[in-house]
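user: can you give me the structure for this one chain? tokens are fine.
assistant: on it. calling the predictor now.
[tool input]
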Amino acid sequence: MRKKKVLLAGVALAMAFLSMVMLSGCGHDKNALYIYNFGDYIDPDLIEEFTKETGIKVVYSTFDTNEELYPVIRNRTASYDVICASDYMLEKMLEEKMLTEMDYDQIPNSEFLMPEFSANIEKFDKGAKHVVPHTWGTMGIMYNTEKIPEGSVKSWNDLWNEKYSGSIVMPDSMRDTMAVALKAKGYSLNTTKKKELAAATKYLIKQKPMVYKYANDAARDLLVGNSADIGVIWSGEYIYCQELNPSLRFVIPEEGSEQFIDGWAIPKEAENKKAAYKWINFMLSKKAALKNFDYLYYTIPNKQVKIGIDEKFSNDRVIFPLADDLKSNEALRYLGPDGDKLYTDYWKEFKSE
């Protein structure tokens, strides 16, 4: 069933992209809703259901990383009415006054948001005035117990173990990849100390010959298909992966990890804000939230999901963790223009080696 969903996702998103191309050829359709989201990050059936419910045509397009999203919105390369991005990027866009203040009167389903997760938004958006939570999760290590003894993977440094050379998957995303090396070295993933960033970069360069592939969304497929034995993956992927390959295990390393909250936001220049509010409210509805959890398996910070899903999921501490589980975790923060440049420079150094 899950494989069928993934196939349908590809078809639906391909159709959405085709409609985007067709509409761009005819000019921007002011009656349509233009959405920009990470790839494979909602159940594609929800797009059609939203249109049936509201009569609003959706033009849906995707990106791979936050760094790909930013210049599109900043430079208005294309016009979008609602976007989904990660905490640190939303913080950056908020600081640059790129986001609309939410009118919560138009989002009545916001009453179902779980306050413990909304608190993550309030760390950078006081009162959560500009961002509505979509998903929450943590970064960890997935490994195959047919190749690697169960319980033996405990540290980020295990990704530098030469025994796994040629079978390691690492993320291909500046802040996430750097975060792995920084945590492995015992540093904060928000450090701006050049000595620490230089050490993390050197560590990543040392690892390069051992890495089978740098991948983001494709990492799960490489692990499920036994192309790789160990890799960095997000918490929401582990249930899906274990369904298809029961030998896989997920661990949050002992040094702590990156935790994220991704949220919906409306760009200040959005042309169809009314439809954007309808979309956000729709995604917070019980039907859409439950359907999206069943598709994604990421934590949906919605009370109706927590009480509506099977107990094996609601009691799973990877999906709905306890406070003690998160003590050593950090969320990525926007580090200002100087911090951005610092990370970009070290990322370029890593990429060029």
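assistant: here you go. The radius of gyration is 20 Å. The chain has two domains: 2-136+261-323, 137-258+327-352.
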